[in-house]
Design a protein that fits this description.
By secondary structure, the protein is an alpha/beta fold. It has nine helices and six strands.
Length: about 210
């Protein structure tokens, strides 16, 4: 990442899986299991066809009252499924080459850093500890810390609020369409690492500020 792009940055926020560590979450498996659960409690699952796990959870919570379900209870049931997929992925997460060195360089420059992830808090805390990343982050925001996870910008806004950094002085580094949409919603410049969750052809129309390999 070039110095010009970092010049005005007071904070750099990072996605976790697919960005700092390898993508290991069984995305399709989580969607299948969630749809099966929603079907058993009366959801018209055809309305969720083609949705990613993130959009699926948000839409199910929104739709819950329409079919006489508690939004909080629906979220809890989906969280339970996603927590198991977090735990499964955590057994295979490996830190990307150069991640630790880049984080260290940012700290040396006095740039604040944060983690904003759709991974649940329990698995995220365990992984950050296991990988020895705690010293590198000033704030960590998981899906359990927000009402609406990415592609909502809520997590990014929360992290910047805690860091006391304005949105125009921050960057977000991610790997997916959800990351681009969350950054746009929060008014933050976004850098996307190619080769993980979404294809370049899907990412470009969403307007990331920078694509890197």
């Amino acid at each position: 990442m070039d110095e010009i792009f970092l010049k005005k940055a007071e904070a750099v926020l990072f996605d976790f899986e697919g960005t700092l560590v390898s993508l290991q979450w069984d995305l399709d498996g989580a969607v299948r299991e969630t749809l099966e659960m929603l079907k058993t409690i009366g959801f018209p699952v055809e309305r969720f066809r083609g949705m990613k796990y993130s959009a699926l959870m948000l839409e199910a919570i929104r739709m819950a009252q329409e079919i006489g379900q508690s939004p909080a209870r629906v979220r809890e049931r989906i969280e339970t499924i996603y927590d198991r997929f977090d735990e499964d992925a955590s057994t295979r997460w490996n830190l990307r080459s150069g991640s630790r060195e880049f984080l260290s360089a940012l700290k040396t420059k006095g740039i604040k850093t944060g983690l904003v992830s759709n991974v649940g808090g329990k698995a995220l805390e365990k992984a950050v500890s296991k990988l020895g990343l705690h010293p590198f982050f000033d704030v960590v925001v998981s899906r359990n810390d927000v009402q609406r996870m990415k592609p909502s910008g809520e997590g990014l806004r929360l992290a910047l609020s805690r860091l006391q950094v304005p949105q125009d002085r921050a960057l977000y580094v991610g790997d997916s369409l959800d990351d681009i949409q969350a950054a746009k919603a929060a008014g933050v410049r976004v850098i996307i690492i190619l080769g993980e969750e979404d294809l370049k052809e899907e990412l470009l129309p969403a307007g990331p500020d920078r694509l890197i390999y």
